[in-house]
Write a structure and sequence with these properties.
This protein is mainly β. The chain has one helix and five strands; from the N terminus they run ββββαβ. The strands form two sheets. A three-stranded antiparallel beta sheet has the order 1-3-2, with no helix packed on it. The longest helix is centred in the last third of the chain and has 4 residues. The chain is elongated, with a radius of gyration of 12 Å.
């Protein structure tokens, strides 16, 4: 996998995560709203729609 320096990521459980480098190997990602969003909390508003479990 080649790290994409424009997409930083610390989600080690994703198959696109470049271990030890904290980058994503995809050329682009899709950001999706979380179900039940609108809570106003940053951590609950959006998620990576490109995530795939290892």
């Amino acid at each position: 996998m080649k790290p994409n320096a424009d997409i930083r990521c610390r989600v080690a459980s994703c198959r696109f995560h470049c271990e030890g480098q904290d980058y994503c190997s995809l050329e682009a990602i899709q950001i999706e709203p979380c179900q039940g969003c609108c809570s106003g909390k940053d951590s609950e508003e959006s998620c990576c729609g490109s995530y795939k479990r290892k």
